[in-house]
Amino acid sequence: MSLKEIARLAGVSPSTVSRVLNNTSSNCASEEVRRRIWAAANQLQYQPNQAARQLRQGLAASPKTLRLVVVAARFATPEADPFFAQLFRSVEEELFASSALLHGVISSAELLKQGPPEADGYLLLGRCPSEALHRLCEQAENIVGIGRNTTDFRIDEIICSGQQAALMAMEHLLSLGHRRIAYIGGCSYEERFIGYYEALRHHSLPLDQHLVQDTDQTGPSGQAAMAQLLEQGGFTAVLCANDATALGALEALAASGHSDVDVIGIDNIVAAEQVTPALTTVHIPKEEMGRAAVRLLLDRIRGGHREHVRMEFPCRLVLRASCKGPHSGK
User: Fold this and answer.
1) Which domains does the chain have, with CATH numbers?
2) H or E segment at 258?
3) pTM for this structure?
4) Partner residues linked to 282 by β-bridges
5) How many other C-beta atoms lie within 10 A of the C-beta of residue 329?
6) Cα(85)–Cα(102) distance, rounded to whole angstroms?
7) What gap in Å lies between CA 154 and CA 15, rounded to an integer?
8) Of 144, 148, 116, 149, residue with least CA distance to 294
9) SS3 label, residue 112
10) What is the 3-state secondary structure (H, E, C) of 262-294?
């Protein structure tokens, strides 16, 4: 499979394809162009000539190409959510660099219904329902989970703590003087909601259930939840469990004419800095997590480790215009 075929499918030049496929830096092309190129490479099941590369480096050729399957745990596909779309892109890039083949992408619902497809290893994007994860663990040993929540299962994990991210976001809002802070996002077995509650408890603030909106963490649900909060009032800031929800919340604020509510998200997706006002958020290192997960899975497949590993990446606050402190009269 040639670079020209990928270029034709992606609608770019072969030189652009070459730069993207050989350079994991996001500066070599726009996010949209990189997305199209990796989608085309995946569709065509393109693999680099690793044998020639290894000969040039004086290394022995790999005896076989490893086939890996990605399980989209929370959505039907990774592209359905901007956080997981960016995470999935870094997984694809690292698979390509490692000469491993993305054998397929399935949802957790498909996994539960038909069982896992045959593969050398599995990468779970997000929190997988316990029944589906049980089934996968019964039939496979090489599994790595990636996300913001830990699991109780004996699998390798790459995480950035959702609880810590929520605590960091809450501490920022509290430092600005907010005391009536609402929450929009998942609540059931969700570490980000736990972080929200723990921050309130640490500052001796009550948990007001009227300020908690339990949602599916999508843009439309964030917009609807913010509209409902605005109807009842009584808050000055909102912590959203992810940026997709926060962007929906900002749309609701703009539609209602409100500019007196601070909004903070979690993830730091690309769109977070493109919206007006730009979204204050907690950065989750998606690219590093995706690459580390692939390396960890390949190491397990090749017998590099036997004990289960949990690797945790730190998060960090990204300050933008959507948080300024409580407004007078609120």
Assistant:
1) 1-46 (1.10.260.40), 162-284 (3.40.50.2300)
2) none
3) 0.84
4) 266, 317
5) 5
6) 15
7) 44
8) 144
9) helix
10) EEEEEECCHHHHCCCCCCEEEECCHHHHHHHHH
Residues of the chain with pLDDT under 50: 24, 50-63, 328-330
Instruction: Please tell me what DSSP assigns to residue 210.
Output: G
pLDDT tens, 47-74? 655 444 443 444 443 446 888 999 999 8
Q: What does the block give as tokens for 177?
A: 């003087």
User: Which amino acid makes up residue 135?
Assistant: R
Residue keyed to tokens 């990774």: 78
Nearest CA among 169, 194, 178, 185 for reference residue 234? 178
Q: How far apart are CA 275 and CA 321, in angstroms?
A: 10
Tell me how far apart the alpha carbons of residues 170 and 59 are, in angstroms, rounded to a whole number.
51
pLDDT per position as a tens digit, 128-177: 888 999 999 999 999 999 999 888 778 999 999 999 999 999 999 999 99
